[in-house]
Amino acid sequence: MPICIPTMSARALRRSGSTGFALLLLASAAASAQSIDMRREYYEGRWTWHGVYRAMNDPNNVSRIQFNTPTRATYCYQRHCWNVNVRRDAGASLSFSTDRKNYFEFNPGGDPVRLPARFWVNFQPPARSPDATIVFGRRN
């Protein structure tokens, strides 16, 4: 079951043939930061940091993401929010970057309630273990 875009009904999503999003987060100075609309469906979680970033583990590091259209989302980490462009990658994963260096990757996996994700502070091939992981939970 795909993750539904909050502004579209599940029925409209099926009729359109859309089964996922594309996530490419592009933050620009011209783009005004948004906030999460708590009256609509969104996902929330806390990052677990790994390796040299383990010291960043903080129980208050709340992240939220809200899908606004098939290609746009609002992503918030602590008190900062970015408008993001969503890109769908191979294997149905979704990805974006907030600064063109870091890299967020989501793997919906068919569960509409849980959204696992990985994060790299500075993503450069070849691939390596993520710097942080999270499982976002859906909030209504």
UniProtKB/TrEMBL annotation:
Source organism, top-level taxon: Bacteria
Keyword terms, alphabetized: Signal
Signal sequence region: 1-33
Protein name: Peptidase inhibitor family I36
Species name: Phreatobacter cathodiphilus
